Amino acid sequence: MNSTNTNTVQHKYWANTSLVLLIFMLFLSVGAFAQGKRLVTGIIYDNTNVPLPGVNVLEAGTTNAVATDADGKFVIEANVGSTLVISSVGFASQNVVVDDSASTLDIHLVEDAIMLQGVEVVSIGYGTMKKSDLTGAISTVKGEDLVKGVITSTEQALQGKVAGLTVSQSTGDPSSGATLRLRGGTSLTASNNPLIVVDGVAGVDINIVQPSDIKSVDVLKDASATAIYGSRGANGVIIITTKSGTKGTSFVYSGYTGISQASNNLDLLSADQWRGYVRENNLADAVDYGGNTNWQKELQQTAFTQSHTISISSGTEMSGFRSSLLYLNNEGVIKTTGLERLSANVSGYQYSANKALKFDTGIFANIDKWHPLDYRIFERAFNLNPTIPLRDANGNYTEVGGTLNENPVEIMNNRTADSERHRVLGYFKTEAKFLNDFTATVNLSLEHNATQGDTYKPSYAVMEGRTENGYAQKTYGEYTNAQIEAYLTYARTFGKHNVNATGGYSYYNNIYKGFGAQRSGFVTDLFSYNNLGAGYNYRLGDVYSYKGESDLVSFYGRANYSFDSKYMITGTVRRDGSSRFGANNKWGTFPSVSAAWRITGEEFMQSSGNWLTNLKIRGGYGVTGNQDGIGEYKSLSILGVGRDSYYDPATGNWSLAYSPVQNPNPDLKWESTKQTNIGVDFSLFNRITGTFEWYNKETNDLLYTYQVPQPPYLVGTMLANVGDLSNKGIELTLNANIIQKENFTWDANFNFAKNKQKIERLSNQTYKTDVIYSGSLHGLSGMSNQFSQIIKEGYPVGTFWGPKSEGLDENGNIIVGDEDQEIGTAQPDFSLGLGMNFTYKNFDFGFTGYGMFGQDVLNATDMMLNDPNRLPSYNVTDDYLTSGIKSSPQYSSYWIEDGSFFRLQTVTLGYTVPMKSTSKLRLYVTGQNLAVFTNYKGVDPEVNFSGLDNPGIDRFNNYPRPRTITFGLNFTLAN
Hints:
By secondary structure, the chain is mostly beta strands. The chain is built from ten helices and 47 strands. The strands form nine sheets. The protein has a 22-stranded antiparallel β-barrel. A hairpin with a 2-residue loop joins β40 and β41. The longest helix has 34 residues.
């Protein structure tokens, strides 16, 4: 065989052999492939052991993917050795290798804090939206991030948590609430409080909800977000979503006990210091009563607080409920004061069999009891000579006579004052889904609030008790709000297009009424306030009653459109009709528009994705109104009883005459606020998120009561829409997950806000005023009919106006200029909040603080106590002895102080006890108001900063803030 044939044979041999081997290997590979497949099943949970529906399970490198069902279960066939990528929005992705060892998996996903902020669902009014899709300025505070500790007013739980939201509490009295201001005040006479919405019910008392029941708080800041609430949205909107039943069953107990003392007192002369001053100055006429009394301390006590909360929740995919019960007993650091509260709520939901219908219902109720304080005791405590003993030799309260020199402990103890408030809120909501993309919602609600007050001053009590021979008073007031909300929502996604539209109708009815009666001249004190008829002195005005009613009818609509989650636009309009305003302005229209661009969604930004994970710019403009705080019937001509009388020949009696007490104003309407907002949302390095906002608010048609000529008007005053006011500012919010390790975490939050307010206009052609005087000093020694502030064009509300001081001359006289001028402002330059949280294994530690900077405070208390004429009859401050002051007090810039402060609000250390079951036990200790960093010389720099009466004025009403230590535990039993 030649070589050619040999090669041919060999070639055929190897070709045939190769073909056989190829076919054999093909069969082997097919067999091996079939043997390498495995059916994998599993359940995916979140970090709280709740099954997660809709989680994506993908075999890496393929298109083989499934999603978990409603119970978090999945089934997928995957190759042995392949990797399953588990991903869900808001959670860190997890990789699982498929092997031969097991085919059933239990997978627990961990929340990704940065991602969660983007997909977090935010309440926007008549609906919800993912935070990443927002076009307006909205800040969210989760329930677990609210201020902890002893909270007697729900507003306190938001203190320092939201940029631009000022929560100010000017007193430490447990029964007093706080003042809320969002982006500055917008009115001179109407309400400046944000609208409160609880579970879809607008205009309710925020204290109907306890902080432990709150799931989240969404603060709507700009007009594009609040225009959906029309004539009630000018001051912003705070939407509270409460906790509801969840899958599974849980029992939670939270309780704490606390001890409190006054955090600060005025430094007044002690008895020894007073005696030393008398000796050094040879004051022969000084009276030493032989005592050694710290009058501030005599009013105070070490206060104890206890709080117990029990909640039970249970639910399935189809139905659920939650109920809670709270008892709080918070003693005040001033004797006789405190707050006792019993609060309860029940809520539930139920789906129909096909989930086309959902029913939600809830009821909240609480009862508050407290003893109102006569705040005149503080001025007396500052006045009294420290050598006066609390009681005389006979055991009676010491009395020395003199103006404003009554025994403050006697005033506090020899009176009976009881108050009680009942709050109830109930709602029933029905949602019906139809035609796949439509949801119809009807929400019916009723709120009732009633307050009763009882006072008795016995005949032996100083001041009114003795002069009136016993004085009794009873008061009662209530209001009821009934609402109907009906709206239709359309939501659909077309590829990259997402459309959501809402249109609805609202009816709101408010009825309020009350009465009061008082009598004096009691033969016996045994009846207390329970038998007013036993008093023999009756005067005109001793009995009164009132009633009023208003209606608000509204139509509203909102449309949202987004493309590819990058471009968003929102338009809103609401039309309100109110019975409160004039015949010519019964209806008002409130529109808004906003848009956003998520820049990081663009391809040209992909290269920056490793450090800039999110960047979105927003802009919006809208008009909102303010009709709250304006009384009913203000647009009408009203007759009232005066002191004139007429003879009625039909009866032969003299009767009181009715005459006009209010001019009609058919043009009366709501105040309108136009607001422009530009915002930037950003995320850096997948650890830091932030928001920056710039806004410009212009309020027109300010309401104020003007002097008008008689004639043609029958009454000399008229409420009219005239003025303009502006608020401009910036806000910055930062949140950082600084360290995220298995055994150690560290996160921080910071917010900053700056607002500048200015009165733009007060007069027009018809109604004129050059200046409005405010900040009355009437009642202070030598200052009758004096005012410390003005409201004037070009200046903010709370501008201190008076002579400028150059200090003291060589004779100890305060040098005061002749010309009045601006000498300060009660408005802060900026405010900030700061918080940090750490965890190490089972330990947790955190602190929060807030501050206000640049505001001025008139220390009227110090101005009165640094009077050289007070000694030796009255007390003075320690500083007076070294001040060199020799002149009588006169209002000037000398008494204006920098009120800037930063308050260490809470410090908490906790430990979570390891438990094998799903139960959880955490023990903690919290300190509140541990330190205040300030140069202010008064008791506390955080005085009242709102309203027209006395913003920024510290005037004797110094109920000290408590410094509190609480010990508590949280126990959760869940299946």
